Amino acid sequence: MEAEEERNREIYRAGAMPFSQLERDFSTTKTEYSKEWKAFERQWMRPAAIVAHMRAVDGK
Q1: Does 60 have pLDDT greater than 70?
Q2: Which in 5, 16, 23, 44 has the greatest CB count within 10 A?
Q3: 37 membership: H or E segment, kind and range
């Protein structure tokens, strides 16, 4: 998860809006993810949340 966080930060600092989405397999059962991964996905799917998160991280 730390590597994904850093990748998203690098994308944002380069001037683009990062987007993270959990992968789903193509089966009849739903893929279950931990609460941590679901929170991570939500953090990096919403532009307003991304900007707020990056301001908190970078202190800007």
Answers
A1: no
A2: 44
A3: helix 35-43
Instruction: Enter the DSSP assignment of 16.
Output: S
Q: How far is CA 6 from the centre of its chain?
A: 10
CA distance 41 to 44: 5
Long-range contacts of 15-24 (CB under 8 A, 24+ apart): 17/47, 17/50, 18/44, 18/50, 19/44, 19/45, 20/44, 20/45, 21/45
Please, are residues 22 and 37 in contact by the beta-carbon 8 Å criterion?
yes
The end-to-end CA distance of the chain, in Å, is 24
Digit-coded pLDDT (tens) for 15-46: 999 998 888 888 888 888 999 999 999 999 99
